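Lab meeting, item 3. Inverse folding demo.
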């Protein structure tokens, strides 16, 4: 009888442990002085968040053009995939922050004329807010960034602009920035273009093109970030990702580069997410 009771208790706790699930809140917000309004974000909390008192590493996971903070929740199935990766030991428990970069104006960067400074908001308001509100480890080693398409571009730029803040960066099917000055001009309205100088245009181009940044930045700074670049063989953004890979090879910057069978769609990115979680977890772990 005693053995039966012990067995029952053991099975109960095993089932409770395996049955734990993470939580996602996709309508959280903070007040932004920089963007002059409420800014929404979604957040994933790991299965043991409510039952532990520990602090967790964090992944900033950026959506693509046309989505908002709910994109990775609704279409990317971040809850199911992350729970499964943690349960299978492929990923360490982490917090995932998914900000909205679609409201008011689309994009993750500061405007060339300084009228919309989303990148400033991300670093100066969003990151301090979530890392204080939630039990997040705030050292470089425990912080990573990833994203798809437009958000892949955000991943490239944020990790290249601030390599001191991220241990890993995983751009997926990334918009690597305008590949020429003429490409950049297509994204700037005519009134703004008339007000800025050629020098300002060149400077902005060099700061928002991943190839130029890799080419011109200090090799040691770029190499302080662990890189994993992933883009499908049928993806229309293949050129920019390929050029970044080539430039990193030239500068002998360690990185992973994957070209899998697939296109620019959620089927591809859902398959990518477990690899994202595994890769960033390697930095979060102690070996």
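The presenter then showed the designed sequence:
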């Amino acid at each position: 009888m005693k053995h039966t009771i012990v067995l029952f208790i053991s099975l109960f706790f095993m089932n409770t442990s395996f049955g734990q699930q993470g939580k996602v809140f996709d309508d959280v917000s903070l007040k932004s002085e920089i963007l002059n309004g409420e800014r929404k974000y979604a957040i994933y909390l790991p299965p043991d968040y409510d039952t532990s008192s520990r602090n967790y590493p964090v992944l900033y996971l950026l959506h693509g053009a046309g989505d908002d903070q709910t994109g990775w929740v609704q279409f990317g199935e971040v809850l199911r995939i992350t729970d499964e990766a943690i349960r299978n030991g492929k990923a360490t428990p982490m917090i995932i922050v998914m900000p909205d970069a679609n409201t008011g104006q689309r994009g993750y960067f500061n405007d060339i004329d300084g009228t919309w400074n989303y990148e400033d908001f991300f670093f100066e308001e969003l990151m301090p807010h979530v890392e204080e509100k939630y039990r997040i480890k705030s050292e470089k080693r425990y912080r990573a960034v990833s994203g798809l398409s437009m958000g892949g571009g955000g991943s490239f730029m944020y990790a290249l602009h601030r390599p001191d803040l991220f241990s890993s960066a995983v751009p997926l099917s990334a918009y690597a920035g305008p590949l020429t000055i003429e490409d950049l001009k297509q994204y700037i309205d005519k009134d703004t273009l008339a007000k800025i100088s050629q020098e300002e245009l060149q400077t902005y181009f060099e700061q928002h093109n991943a190839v130029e940044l890799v080419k011109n930045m200090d090799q040691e700074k770029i190499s302080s970030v662990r890189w994993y670049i992933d883009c499908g063989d049928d993806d229309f953004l293949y050129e920019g990702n390929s050029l970044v890979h080539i430039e990193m090879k030239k500068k002998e910057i360690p990185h992973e580069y994957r070209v899998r069978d697939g296109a620019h769609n959620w089927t591809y990115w859902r398959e990518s997410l477990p690899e994202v979680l595994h890769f960033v977890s390697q930095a979060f772990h102690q070996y």
